[in-house]
Every structure is written in structure tokens, then in C-alpha cells.
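Handoff note, outgoing to incoming analyst
You'll be picking up this chain. Sequence as last confirmed:
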Amino acid sequence: MPSKSQRKTEKPEGSQPVTTLRNMGPRCAEWLAQIGIHTAEDLRRVGAATAYRELVSRDIVRPHRMLLYALGGAVMDLDCLKLSRCQKRELETEAGL
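Most recent structure output, in case you need it:
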């Protein structure tokens, strides 16, 4: 059991910033914040393809499959370079590419 001081500093999983997810850095966090995604749980709830479509449709980012793969990898807790072809195709289909 964590000590009292540890419990105060630990954040509940749902309030972890999006940058705690694999593949997500400060720049992605800035983009996601513009569409209301601030936490890891927000991104998981919305989903990678939906977040990607929203970023592109609002002209926050240019269409780029690697961003889609990074978002998908973040949700799946996988390095975006390790996604299988099948996983990439599934993300592309969900994103309407």
C-alpha cells in the first residue's frame, strides 16, 4: 500500500496527461487540446480515428498517416512503428482514408 504522501502526488489514471501515452509528445498534446482532448482517458474514449479526423477537419494538422498511427499506437499502448499492416488498415478504414 502506498504511503500517505505517495497517494497525494499520484494522479488517478483518468487524469494523466495525454503525453503519458506512448507516441504522444508536447506538440501532439497541443493539437489534441484544441479539440478538447487533454487526458489519456479522453483520447481512449474518443478513439484514435475520430481524434485524427477532427484534427484534420479543423485544419489543425495536415493529413498524415503517421499521426494516425501515432494516435492509434497511443490508444493501444504500442510503438507506432510496431503496428501491424492489419492494425494500420483498420485505423485507416476507421479514419475514412
